[in-house]
Sequence to fold (300 residues):
Amino acid sequence: MIFKNYIGEMIFWGIVASILGIFVNFFHPHKIDFIRKPPPPKIEDTSSPNFTEIDVDMAKTMWEMGEYLFVDSRTEVQYKKGHIKGAINLSWEEFEKHYPKVKDILKTKPALVIYCAGEECDLSHSLAKKLYKEGFSEIYVFFGGWEAWKAENLPSEVSQ
Amino acid sequence: MKFKNILLNLIRIALGVIFIYAAIPKILRPDEFADAINNYRILPYFLVNLMAICLPYVELLIGIFLIFGFRIKAVSFGALTLMVIFIIAVFSAWIRGIDINCGCFGTGKEIISYKEIIRDIIFLLMAFLTFLKTPKWHTL
Fold:
């Protein structure tokens, strides 16, 4: 097999480059943890309430009413690239850091609608649980999330 | 056979430029690249960041080596391997219908479609040609 002779050398150079990458990451202004934070565990315990799930039509109606505060539970980077118009960002991954900053904004509306990327992500449920523990009781989970909102071409915005 | 050699060199250098061009935005923003990898939902979470840290430098090294004609056989084989992995990743995201950014050239707004797959196959062929047609002695 012609490839066989080069596999070893390819792996060698791959390791050299990887070590360089790991080294640079220590000094990088946008450096990241070597191990990503684990995704939130699936909700199974019954200690917290089941939040009312809403679909995209319902979300649209609620958005138009203006009585609900939309909360984006994705990361800041994802939020900045595009989110539901008027939504605020409260990343589940950095809840402890960001919650004190947005605490007062959350209280300005009587109810919250939480969303994340789409149907397959559990961030919105996890965030809903955390906010419930912080004393918010009127919480809705928009399970279609950003993907469904974007697919319907509903009002969105980008922030830099 | 002079023309053939010039063409092969051109393909090799172009491939090197493409790899460097792809590596730079990822090197500048490892955090965004990590999100892009995570969106594919292929790797387990504990490998995502490590991949985002290492992979751009592997691409950079391959690109530089290809341009300068250093260890061509080994790095073009590396390029070939990476392209196969990328094609599988993009294809799997495409057939699962997940609407994500490719992340191929940093974090541009290219949503995955068949176009990315065709483009990657062209790169794959370039890497394959470079690997196959580079004479054995040409390894510096």
